[in-house]
Every structure is written in C-alpha cells, then in structure tokens.
Queue: 3 jobs
Job 1
Amino acid sequence: MSEFDYDLLVIGSGPAGQRAAIQAAKLDKRVAIVERKVVVGGVCINTGTIPSKTLREAILHLSGYRERGLYGASYTVKQHITMSDLLFRTEHVISHEIDVTRSQLLRNRVETIAAEASFVGPHTLRLNDIVGHGGRDVTAANVVIATGTSATKDGHIPFDVQRILISDDMLRLETLPRTLAVIGAGVIGLEYASMFAALGVRVTLIDKRPRLLPFVDAEIMETLAYQLRQNRVTLRLGEAVSTIELFTDEHGDRVKIHLGSGKQIVAEKALYSIGRTGATGALNLAAAGLSTDDRGRLAVNAFYQTNVPHIYAVGDLIGFPSLASTSMEQGRLAACHAFGVPTKSVPELFPYGIYTIPEISTVGRNEEELTEQGVAYEIGKAQYREIARGQIMGDSTGLLKLIFHAETRALLGVHIIGEGASELIHIGQAVLAFGGSIDYFVSTVFNYPTLAECYKTAAFDGINRLGG
Ligand SMILES: Cc1cc2nc3c(=O)[nH]c(=O)nc-3n(C[C@H](O)[C@H](O)[C@H](O)COP(=O)(O)OP(=O)(O)OC[C@H]3O[C@@H](n4cnc5c(N)ncnc54)[C@H](O)[C@@H]3O)c2cc1C
C-alpha cells in the first residue's frame, strides 16, 4: 500500500488536466482531478475554444457568409441577428461538452473533487471546498498542475464588463455593437475581429506589432488582411495604445482609445486581448519549491517536469503554443512519464488552427523560417477557385501553399487559408510526419470533387516552378 492518498493528483479540469487524469486511470492508478469551478472543462469548454468556435459557426450560418460568393454580398439567412440568436447555439454545445467530459471522467473512474487546490508541501495539497467552507489535506505521489491561464488585465485600463471587455465577456454581450475596437491582434483578437466584421460590425484592429501573427506564413497573413479589409476592418498596425477612456455623449456610452501616434478611435465596445497570464496565484507554489516567470508561467523540461521532478506542469500554464490540442497531448505525455510508460508522440509537429473568417491552418516551416535557415526550397500553390469543390462552395479566395525542398522534394510545410483549412491540414501533417515528398500528392488519387485536390494542384504547380 502506498504512503500517499493518490498516485496522481491533477489540478485543473481543462483539456490538459483531463487527459493526464484519464491516462493515469487507464494505467490503473489512483487518480483525482481537482477543479475550482462548479463545472468541468476549463477555459476550453466554458469560455474559450468551444464557445468561440460555436459562435463563429452560428455567425457563418445566420449571416449566410459562406454563400455570399455565389448569391452576392447581400445574402443572409436571418435579418437582424441578435446576440441571443448567436448564444443559443453556444449554450447548447457548452452544456453537451460538459456532460461528455463528466461522463468520460466517471467512466474512467477518475475521482472529481470540487475544490481549490494549493500546495502545503511538495506532496501535500490543501483542498478548499468550493461549496461550503470546509477543506482537507491530501497527499499524492505525483502532481500535474494544469491550471491554465486568464486574460491579462493591465491595471490602468478601466475594465467594466460592459464597454471594455476581455474575451470571456464577449459571451455575455446583450446586444451587438455597431462598432468594436479590438486591442491586440493575436489569435483571439483576430478571431473575434473577423467574426464581428462578418456580422457587419465596423471593427478597428489595433496592434503594436507591424505585422499580423509573425509566426504564420506572410503570404497567408496578407490574404487574411485583404479579407478583413474587404469586410471593412480598419487595421491599425504598429500603433500602441496609450490610454482608454469611457465616455457618454448623445450617441450613448462609448469608449475612446488614444494611440501613441495621437490618433483616437471611438467605438461602442473595446475587446482587450493582449495575452494571457498563468493561473498560479492560488497555488502557493513556494510551499512546493516552485516559482513562475513574470507572466505566471511554469518552466518544464521535455517530459513536462518542473524543477521538482514529481510535479509536472502542462497546458497553457507552460506557454507556447497554448492550444487545447497540444495541451491534451502534454497532459497524456506527463502521466505516461510519471508512471514510466514510453511514448512515441511527436508533439513538436503540431498543426496550428486559427479560426478567423476565413480560417487558417498551418503545419511545418514557413518561407521566412526556411530563408533564415538557408534551406533551398520551392513553393507550389493552389487557389480554391481552380478546384471544382471551391467553385461549388463559392470560396474564391482560399489558398493552399506547399513548401518543399528544392532538391529532394521533401515536404517542409503546408499553409492554408480558406474554408476547411483546419481539417485539410491533417493530410499535409501526415505526409510531413512520415517524411514524405510532394510526389505523394502527384501519384495519389483524391476524392473528386474535394478541397483535398488542392494538394495535387499545388504539387504540380511546385514541380512546374522547378522547371520539371
Ligand atoms: C477565446 C479563446 C479561444 C480559443 N480557441 C482555441 C482554438 O480554437 N483551438 C485551440 O486549440 N485552443 C484554443 N484556445 C486555447 C485553449 O482554450 C487552451 O489552450 C486550453 O483551454 C488550455 O487548457 P488547460 O487545460 O491548460 O487549461 P484550462 O482550459 O484553462 O483549464 C484550467 C482549469 O484549471 C482550473 N483551476 C485553476 N486554478 C485552480 C486551482 N488552484 N484549483 C483547482 N482548479 C484550478 C480552472 O478553473 C480551469 O477549469 C482558445 C482560448 C481562448 C481564451
């Protein structure tokens, strides 16, 4: 019998914590997951990934946006779309996902504890009940910290939930604003900017960096910037926000944003989305011999161990790439490592899905990285409009771009913007993972008519560019 109450205690029930707990349970370990919210699922299910992606789907459907390429810019499924039209779908999906998660944890015999956890010592945690005021101490041989992040709030910004919002507040909007300023053109800021622009809201997007998402292929981001401008988004890049003030005039309650350059932007609402901070404040990390960086994040090694080897940290809490997809795999790998199970996962070859309108997905290296690394590469491109499925769908702006080695033709990267990008990317990801070349796309047969055919067209285009 072990000297500890649990073989593994997981703190946080988001994607990272869930997968760590379920993996340990599958190894027949005594495992519990501690969650301080009344519902399981973390930011992913309750305020981040799932609600924002469902909102996007509701916007695309009700606005008729997908069909406008065929039926014209005035096409719409519903006139006068309201926030309650949009949130109806979101609430339905969230409650279903919470239920699925609960049942998965139950089926795998993971004990779920509704409490806030904090360290008393490296193996001892205090669990303070979230209902009632009780609490108790428990011990665990291993601990996985998966407490995620919350939106970074700067002290000098007068957040009021009504006019100056963080991303969580977007799901509580009662009415659609006519104008929206989005401060911070990271993934979350860009997704919300493009969604509201698709609804006809006048959006201004502000970021101090001169280029949108520098980690994504420049050509793909130029295509997105073009699409945003087509939807009347004003891009204010290379501009820093100095102050934000709330004011009321004859047009109602509004926000005035002062930029360092002297420009002023007036909007009904402002979304402040400049990054996220690790949710470590309540953990009393010092009692376990741990400390964070200035953004509340924990450092880990390749096995997700902190500097205290039996304490692991996974998910958004450890920083880049901060995706639900990678968080799940990190959780699973941490649990495997804790119990000595060898794994073959390659988490560094992950795809990035960016659910802007149009959506973007990317895997492998981009042109800028390869140029910097001195790799001789060539590209091959396919526009969706060249492909029968693209015509049928009315997506005339989609683009799939392959990057491959100019001599060996080995695939080095795939970059896609357009409908279905986040699904299509997995074909390229598999070829990359198995070390394949673009010749695979030439010699294989794809269903017809599909967007997957873009791979073949892009491969032929690449070979033509080689002069072959
Ligand atoms: C608006 C938005 C959109 C996003 N869209 C996408 C997307 O499209 N695709 C994608 O892959 N990712 C997306 N993400 C990122 C994704 O949500 C995160 O990567 C993911 O949720 C991280 O999972 P996690 O398990 O690390 O933490 P979280 O999901 O944040 O879960 C952490 C949990 O820990 C709990 N907790 C914290 N402290 C304690 C404590 N002391 N005791 C007990 N419990 C505690 C919290 O209550 C929370 O439930 C999005 C994020 C946001 C905000």
Job 2
Amino acid sequence: MSEPGPSTRVVRAGLPEPQQGEPFLPGPVFAAPFHLTGDPYAAENAYTRYGNPTWRGYEDAVGSLEDAESVLFASGMAAASAILLTSLRPGSVIAMDDGCYHAVRRLAQEHLEPRGVEVRLAPPAGLAAAAEGADLLWLETPSNPTLEVYDIAVLAESGPVTVVDNTTAGPLLQRPLDLGAAYTITSATKHLSGHADLLLGYVSTRDPERAQELRDWRRDTGALPGPFEAWLAHRSLATLALRLERSCDNAMAVARLVAARDDVEGVRYPSLPDDPGHEVARRQMAGYSTIVSFDLGSAERAERFLAAARLVTDATSFGSVHSMAERRGRWGGDSVPEGFIRFSAGCEDTADLLADVEQALDSTRN
Ligand SMILES: Cc1ncc(COP(=O)(O)O)c(C=O)c1O
C-alpha cells in the first residue's frame, strides 16, 4: 500500500491495538499516584508527574505525524520554555526571529538574558547573520501574526541547533524535522485540538536523549498537562485533516477577497502568488495554513470591522473551527500597524464566511 494520506494517518494516530470489548480510544486516566509495590522505576505508572498513560497515547499520536518522539506539556509556552531552559546556560547564545510569538521573545529577554544568555533578535533578512556562532536558532514559520516565511533547510544548515515553532502550520502542513531542525514545538491549543477549549503544547525531536531530557525537565518542573486535556486533544486529532482542509480553503478565499479590495492594505497569506513568502512556503509546506493578516488603516476601523462581523469572533487565538480575528495592536508587543487584523479562518461554509467578511468591510468603509 502507498503512504497513507493525512486523513488516514490522523484517524487512527496513537490508538491502541483493537481489543475485544475495549473502546477505540481509552478514556482519560485520572490518577496522581498509581498502585505501586517495589521498584518505582520499573513500573510504567508510578505517579503522574513521572508519566501518565493518557499523555503517552497522545504523544504517540502526534509523534507518529512527525516520525519523532513527542513530549507533551501543559501549554505551548511550557513546551517552548522546556527547550530553551534545557538547551541554554549562562554564556549561551540564542538567535531568534524578531517576529516570533511575543511570549517566547519575552521569555528570552526578561528571563534568560538576565541569567547570562545572549539573546540576538533579528529581522527576517538578518536572521542568518545573527545565527552565526549561536548555540540555538529559534524560528517561527509562518510567524504569528506577521506571516513571515523562513527557509528552514537553509537556516538549519547554518550551524546552530535549530528549533522551529510549528504552531501556525502544524505537523500535517509542515515537517521541519525533515528539513534539518532538531526540535519542533507546537502549541496544540490551536489547530491540533481545534475547538478553542484547552491549552496544550508539545516538543518533537528525533534524538532520544533530547526527548528524555525534556521528560526529565517536565518531571522536575511540574509543567504537566491534565489527562482530560490530553484526551480531548487526542479525540479531536482524528478530524485535523478535515478541519484544515476547510479552514485553509476559507483562508484562501478570505485572502483573495481582501486582496482584491482597495480599502484593505498589506494583505499577507503565503498562498497568494505575490506574497513575499510564497516561493519558500510552496517548497516546504503541504498547505498554507489558516491565518490571513491585513491592515484596515486605523484602530478605529479595525474595531468597527470586528464588531460588524457576525461569523468572526473577536478573540485572541487561531486554529479553531470558529473563525476568529483580532486587532493585534491592542496587546502591544508586536510591531504591527494599529489597524492590523490577524484573521483565523474556521470551518464555516465558505460562501457564508465571505459574505460576512464582505458586509463587515463594506459597512466600515471610510
Ligand atoms: C506561534 C505560537 N507559539 C507558541 C504559542 C504559545 O502557546 P500556548 O498559548 O498554548 O501557550 C502561541 C500561542 O498563541 C503561538 O501563537
């Protein structure tokens, strides 16, 4: 049989072998301690901070999508900080793209820099130079929210241990470990779980020692996922390919709609042939993800647009079945114009979504 397609892979990812009378996906295992006699290290389950069967099921599932070992954490940020804090020491150097997720930048600048780590933040064109002589290279592609696209293979070849924050694409659309990255980190809060109802994150690596280091870090710091969240995320994984298919189609349709209007500026969506990231994205991604960004010229118009849209929820996340958007500048921390909108396409019917976005834009035309 040829390589299974993405839907086939996610439908059964991480499920145990069929057993008479047992469910397809076993329910969440809620336990702090487990019954334990004798050598605790010989037992598969001893105490949930050391490991939990529901986590392992989900880790097997997401790991199978990247052909890697995956280590699950309580959130994307817990996963990101696990890589940073296990990899860097006083005197280490990290190069990061300056458009990467703002909390990752803040973690590096406010928590690592004062502890003696040199943090080099670089704009897209300067990232390769900043990476020279660095110990760790952190890149997020496509980046949130500005959708810069980095050439993973070229940058990973430049020397430092390379980490790709794969949150905006996820493992079905982009496989950075195949392109030379040592780690991927993914916030499973977004597409992977897909219903805007939980936080989770994970790190994937093909190096068993690195994976063990991350599990030890999780055990010792207690950045633990809840079994119920892990189970919900595993349950939702089966529909990932279907959800992405619809959401990516919707994102493309919205990108085309806004790009064709004369009252919308700065449209970014890597699928658009004239997007600066198009060529690299086409080479290294299997799809262009669900986020579109654009500028409505002023904070005031952006807020009116969000209030006028009926099918687009004003909220700060992406990757859900619900379309969402926000005026990103309301947070500070990202270098974006005041009227900048990050739009995350959900799974609504395309015609309905387009009609809604169009009426919201028309009703707020200056
Ligand atoms: C690119 C990226 N990385 C990491 C994170 C952090 O994930 P979490 O909110 O699950 O901690 C986010 C959250 O929005 C993100 O967009």
Job 3
Amino acid sequence: MKETVDGPVSPGFRAVALASDALSDNTAITRLPETLRSALKHAPAGKCVRWGIPFEIENFVLVSTSPTSVSFAPTTAQWFVIMHTSDVRPLDADPDGFISPMRGAGQLNEHAATYVLLYKDGTEARAEIRRRHQVGAFQRRWGENCFQAVAHSKPAPVRASHEQLRQGWGNTQTRVNQSDSGPWVNWLWAWENPQPGKAVVGIRFQSVSGTLLVFGLAAGNAAENLLRWRRRRKALLTLPEGETFDPGLDEHGLLDQIQLDMGQVISASPRLAYPNESWTDSYNNQLPVRSEQQVLVEYTSHPDACFHLAFAGHAAERVPVGDVEAGSHNGPVRPVPPATQRVALRVLDASSRQPVAVKLHVHGQYDEYIAPVDRHRIVNTAWFEDYSVDFSHQNRHACTYIPGETVLDLPLGKVYIEISKGFEIRPVRRVVEVATETEEIVIELDRVLPWREKGWVTADTHVHFLSPMSARLEGAAEGVNVVNLLASQWGELMTNVGDFDGATTWGSRETGQDGEYLVRVGTENRQHVMGHISLLGYRGQIIAPMTTGGADESALGDPIETLLTEWARQCHKQGGLVVLPHFPNPRAEHAASIISGDIDALEMTSWGDLYSGINPYSLSDWYRYLNCGYMVPAVGGTDKMSAATAVGTVRTYARLDEQTPFTYDTWMGAVRRGETFVTYGPLLEFSVDGLPMGRRIAMSRTGGTVDVMWQVSSVTVPMTRVELVINGEIRESVAVDAAGAGGTWSIHLDKSAWVALLVRGHYKDQSEIIAAHSSPVMIDVEGSQMLAAADAVTILEQIEGAMAYFDTIGTRADDRAYKRMRLVLESAHRSLHNRMHRKGHYHDHTPVTDHKEHH
Ligand SMILES: [Zn+2]
Ligand SMILES: [Zn+2]
C-alpha cells in the first residue's frame, strides 16, 4: 500500500483516525476474494491527501457479513468523507451470454451496504450505499462511473509529449489525466451530516451484499458538496520581484508556485501583453510581448478551495478562491472576468453576404486567448503532435481557422478580435464590447485587391500532416486556392499515405464543392543527401518508395533505388507537376534534374517564419540556373508540419490562361508556363514588352531596348522598394508607397538576359525583407548564349558531389540499379559540360568525372 498526495490539503477538513480495533487483521485479508487480495498492495495508505482532503490510513475496515463499528472522539462536522471501495460483483449471464436484469458490470444501484452515523446522544442517521452511486468497484470498468463518488486521485493537467519525458504521445495530447483506473481504486464519497450541530462518535458499517473496504475518513465543513468543482475560471498571478515563472509539472501534474487544494490548476502561462489601446492600428499576426511577472492561471475548483502559493524567499501563502473571485483579496492573485457569454460569430463577404472561411484570433481584457467552443484553448505547435486547424505564431499569438461561423464563450466587456483571409483582403483588428444581451457578432470583409479577378490563383506547394478537409479549411481561410498536401515517409513513419488516391481533388466541382479552394494529395519523395522532390497532382499509383538511402529521411537499411530525376520523370508520366521543395536544400542531385529539364518549378519556403522573407541564399542558387539559360519558375510553399506554420505564409501566385476556368489541372498548367510570382504579402504585375513572366523574347544580334511595366499592391506587408533584377544583379531600384505603386523602365540589352521583379518591404517593427519576387522573362539575343561560366562550374561540381556520394558511401540496391542511375547523372553532367566546352570555357577538372571520354 502506498502513501500518496495529489495536492495541498484544505484547511476546512481534518483526518479522522479509525480506531484500530475495528481494522482488519491478517485473517481478514486472507478472507478477501483473490482479485482484491492481489491488488491490495496498490491501495492508498498512510497520510494521504486526496482532492484536498486529508486521510490517515492505517488499514481498512472490512464491511462484509457482520456489522462493524468504528468509534472516534466526538466530532461535529457538516461532512464526513468516506474513502472506501468495493469488490467486483459477478454478472449472471444465461448460457447464451445474455444478462437479465441488466444492471451492467458496475451493478448500478445495487444496495451494497448501510452506513450509520452514531451520535453522542444515542441517536443515529443512516445512509444507503449503492453501487455506482456512493461506491464503485476497486477496479473500474471503462464506462462504469460513479454518480456521487469520485476516484481517489483528483484530475490533473498533463504536459504534451514534447514537453515532458513521460511516455504517451497520444494520451498526453488530451493534456488531462483522470486517475480512475489502474490496479486499485478507492472512492471518495462526501456524506452530508443531516444534523451537523450534534457530535458524532462513530460509524457502523453493515454489509447488505458483497464486500466493501473502508480505508479512511475525514470530517469538515464546506458550503456545498466538496467533490463538486465548478466550471473553469481564470485568474492573474503576479509573481514577486525577482521570481521567475516555472512551468514544470511534478508527477502529480502540479506546479511548484501555485496549487489548489479542493480544485486543480488547469494551465498557467505567462501573460501575453497585446497593444489593446491601439489594437485597431496594429497589424495581422503582430506578436504580443511575453510578461515576465504576470501569469494567466486557468483553474477549476470548489468555491471553498484555496490557492497555495510558494515563492522563493517568501512564506507559503494560502488564498481562498472566494476572496479572489469577489475581488476582496489584495494580494498576488486577481480575478479575470469569466467567459460565460455564449456568442455566435459570423464573418461575411461584404458583396455576397455569405459566411467565408477566415483565420481568427480573439482575446479578452487580460490578453487571455479565447478559442471557439470547438477549438483548442492550448494550441500545440510541436512537430507531428497535433493537426488541428490552428496557427500559433511563434508560440505566442494563437489563432484558429473557422468556416465563417462559429460559437465562442466570451467575457463581458471588451474583446479584441483579429480576422484575416489572405493577401487580397485587408486584415482587420477590431474591438467589440460584449454585454449580457450580445448574442451575435457580425464582421464583414471586402476583397480590395483584384488579383483573383485578373486570373491569378494562389497556392501553397508544400503542406504535411493535415487531413485533406483540414487543409481545405486552412487554405480557404488563408485565401490559398490550391493546397498541395504531401504524403511522405519519415524513417519508419508514413504520413497521409491513406489520403493519396491519385484521383481526387478535394473541394473541386466534381466533388460537389464550389471549386474555389482545392486540396490535392501528392508526395514529397526524399533522400537525405541527394535531395527532396515534390511530386504534385499526379494520377494513378503512389510513386514509391517515397524515401531511399537510410536515415534520417528513410528507414535504416533502405537502399538508394531511385533518383530524384527518375521520380520526376515518373511524375510527369503520370501527369503531375515537379517542384524542388525548400530550394536549394538538400543541395545535391537536383542540379542534374534541372539540367535534364525534369523540374517544373523551384520552391521558396518559409516554414513558420513570417518575417525573414525570401532568402537571398535561395535566390542566389536559383539565379545560377537562370544565368546558364535554364528557365525554371519560382513557386512558394511553406513545408508546414505543425501549427507553428500557417498555410500560405509564403505562397505562389500563378495566372491562368485567359478564358481558362480554374481547376487543379489549369493551375498546374499555369505553373508550367512560368507565369508566377512568390510572395509574403505584396502582389505584383510584371511584363517585358507586353509579355508576362515565363516567356522568352527573341532579339536580333544587335540587341535593343525593352519596355518593362510593373505594378505592385499590398494590404499586408508594407512595401518599401521595387527593384529590377537582370542576370542576378539589381539594375533599377525605386522607393515605393507602402500600399501600392507602378512604373515603367526602358532597358537596353546587347546580350541575352533574364529579367525579374523584386519587391522589398517590412512591418514597422521588423527588418526589411524580400517580400515578393517574380519569375523571369528571358530575352535571347542572337549569337549570345546564356551560360555564365562560374555558375556552370558550381552546378557541375554539385552533380559531381552527388555522384561521389553515390559511388562511395550511399547504400546500394543492386548493380543494375546502380549503373542505371549512374548513367542518368552522367548524362546530365555531360550535357552542361559539353555546352561549356563548346563555348570555350575551361575549368578545373575534378577527379570524379573522366574528361577524356567527352573531349
Ligand atoms: Zn523536404
Ligand atoms: Zn516537406
């Protein structure tokens, strides 16, 4: 038997020791049924605290065939709390296994015993102990709960798997623990004394059916049933000077600094200070400041419970929750208005008056996040832990996605609402006053930038783990028309493979939806050294294996049996689109895939980062290929793998062919044509001599002048500059208005060139970033081939590196496969190498390639 404490002890109750002459001796233990006897070692013992109530357990009183009485010193109390349990009573089934009358395994309502309070004046008060009411069985069967008694451990919060060393990936995500199962359960029943003014001197226990074991008794006073906790509330804890908040939970789910006796702290987290005074002027996803001194505490408790506070260098303090809630406590714990006003929130498109999916954030006057009733209050941003439709910006600014209508429980007074829906609709931050008569809040959104009307559609080329319908909601709420959900393999873990059918476009008209927000499941095929490749929208069978070559992308022992280039060719055979994700990493084989013409687009990636923009490192790598004449457009994809990243943080804009309806296939066509740009917010139009991105212009040997036209607009990231990039260098640069600008340049060209538009911008409290970048227009001047020697050498070296890995340490499949793949790489290498030599560029030869063969 073990001593256990599940939290601090309430000052309103005291343990009542049971006189030892009534307790069981060893012969009583031997009379117990075997199941009880063997589990008894798990029963609580010694000085215990359960649900804030103290018990002193020496042994148990066996309530069986003959009545047993215990006596104690005269005690007056409103409540006697009995810690007891019972045997598991057999069910009588007929030979067919049917049970009648059917009381269930818990023998619901069976009269198990009668307990009698013995008053000092000789009178008595009786209580019937019925199964599943006042007592349960020592081993609870799932679903057989007690109606008037609770299991001996109080519920407690649980840290998510990544936050603790404890086992249990799935269960920890509930963040709650109800310890009412296991080898031994005692039950606490609070017996209301019908005559609280009279002294009680003992209790007689009389068995009626079966066996009960009474372990402990406590007595005390409380205004109402002490085992009934009230609905969740919040309070604000201010730590003393010099004290820092410790979020660690002990094995009972308790914090060091703040605990409750007859209740439980649900969560405690530093207050996030939002700019509430200037809320409507602050921007979408702007981060609040994390407070060092103030902690928001959520709790559930009995009204007579006390907070128990413990801070370094301070005497322990006990604060009644009643005083906190009444506002009469003048100390470190203050009440936060309860969120009990049920309000419907509707977000409408201003022109259609229809509800539209949006991203939503709501907080109250104490900066407490308020989630809709069917959404996480505590958003889990860990990798592969929770695929709920939430976004938490840097684990500070919590948001969720709603289909346009939702229900929230709000506090009375001011609430602060943020709503956004992509880059064409101005995000709103609004303050709403909630009163007792508030039943509905309606917010209207206007589409202000007409890019969709002009034929542009948006896409995220790279999302993991969500279900297709969650991806569709998040896409719609972020204004992303196409979400590519990529199945993959991670070691021994396969994700979204059941969602891949090589046929369905979720949200399309064929599936009965409006066809505006689509989700298509593709695959990201990966090799940790050779590289990753995203195979989008292909039809038919899944292209597998999805990973090769062993850890860490692939399972240990997986050989390299397919190249990226071969995966790309298979995807094209099956009608798909090939994207190099999170370009340029891992940097190896994809150099060969690009040279061979097997790549449709390169992906600029954000992950959870809203403020770093398009990485010049990624652009520099892309420019190498453009400088060598390989026309590959850019796309934007997030590689979202958790709620820390929002779908479409960086996104692709691609323009459909004029007169083409929007479908997944026409979107793939738009990307293949190269009329794309990548953006974190600003939208652009760009043409050279009237031709859009992705096109080539032929010029005679003498070259000439081209007219560049551009236009930019933003309702999100404020813009600062627009620049013209020619062959990887900034040729023109102009300062622009934060919200919009346009212009033209006349550019003289005397040799072949690629031309693209780059937009810079930043929020006022952030650094300037490359916020958008177009795909290029290529101008071929006769007699001048795009082939920058220095870039070509680095590309060849990259292919040579891939070959060296392949030749030396890469795990091999079989000899035939090895030779086949070696030829693919050699042929790509040879094609660029020969071009260089034809142009008369010489370079240092590396030992990996045998030059003599090709000369
Ligand atoms: Zn990847
Ligand atoms: Zn990925």
